[in-house]
Amino acid sequence: MANFQTHIAVSSALGAGYAWWIHGQYDIPWPTAAVAGGLCGIAGMMPDLDSDSGIPARETISFAAAIVPMLLFNRLQQYGMSVERMILVGAPIYLFIRFVLGPLLKEFTVHRGMFHSVPAMFIAGMITYLLSDSSPTTLRVLKAAAVSLGYLSHLILDEIWSVEVTLTGSRLKSSSGTAVKFFGSKPSANVMCYGLLLLLAFGILQDNPQAAEQLIHRAQVAAPHLPQPEPEPDWFVPPPDDFRAVPPTPPRYQARPMTDDHRY
To answer: I need a surface site. Which of 13, 67, 110, 166 has the fewest CB within 10 A?
Structure first.
């Protein structure tokens, strides 16, 4: 597989190109574009969270522990927190990721497991989307896409390095196909991975209710053969907002109450 320096160099180069592209394509301010490019560069290390060696896992955990509180900064600010409160929230998050989550991942994960997979790439992007502030949806999507791009670069490099080229030809190493995959060898890991993917997708829809409507609309446009809602007839006029139900009209002829003269 590609070494740590190669992953960092490639993902950082992709991040620089990505920042330049979104700045020109979407008129994103340079500081925001640079943050997205930096996320792409850091994401190039993320699949090695399950690495057996010390340096990739340690560096990746350290970067993740520092980046996550930064992504939460604007979101916490919207809740009216002061800088002191945000520091009190961010410090425990850093310590938890650095000294609790890191050892747990090292203990319960195997190298080239589901961390090296396509669903894990989407999971990384979804987590970035949810951690980002409530800025325009476009910026959140671009940051999430940057992380997924950096993550994907790591997977592709591992697959490229699994091909051994010699003077007599080329052959596939035993690690071929273990990076860009959709399922691992352990069913329990597959269930947990796809369960987390669905949970994050549900969280994104809850965080942005309009996303579900946009997805349905785009699906109907892309696939016009799908059943479409029936249009309202031309004669139908929706009632006004201040519409009130009219009480029923009493009958024209009502029975007169009987008097003493009518009694027998």
So the answer is: 166
Helices (H), the chain: 4-26, 30-43, 54-71, 73-78, 83-96, 102-108, 118-131, 137-161, 187-207, 209-222
Phi-psi region of 113 (alpha: psi -120 to 50; beta: other; left: phi over 0): beta
Tokens of 203: 């969280």
Please state the pTM of the whole predicted model: 0.76
